[in-house]
Known about the structure:
Helix content is about 35%, strand content about 25%.
Amino acid sequence: MKIRKSREADFDALLAIVNEAAQAYRGVIPADRWREPYMPPDELKQEIANGVIFWVVEADRRLVAMMGIQDKDEVVLVRHAYVMPTVQRTGVGTRLLRHLEGLTQKSILIGTWADAAWAIAFYQRNGYRVVPNAYKDALLRKYWSIPARQVETSVVLANARWMQDRQRAPAHSSP
Length: 175
């Protein structure tokens, strides 16, 4: 398996990974947030235009996982992390996450659906913690461009660096 930055030629494979892996959300996330396809091509193009840099795992000359990273001033966001169902629970996602962590010294934040228990558990196994609700909405509004309904139905997870920074910050400081 090889981890590499995605290329323009990977676009269709990225869409296929997102839309196949996101089938796990069907019937789990709020029905008003589900759509088919889960991520249309124009949305992926917009994410790339907005600075999300995708990294992929290539196995046997085909892409099996993807994860984006987006620099947002004082933090980095992990965006659109998907692993093909056929290779889930084999360590591929963890290897890709560790690779992205190695690309930054900044605090890392990850947003996901509150009802996606498997995704939350994955990040928790990898050292991330769900941020307190007192911070969640403000973080989602500050760093993500998502509808209010998605803010309501999402959680944010943070790495230890972000949590330590919050403990050192004055109580009145913003997220």
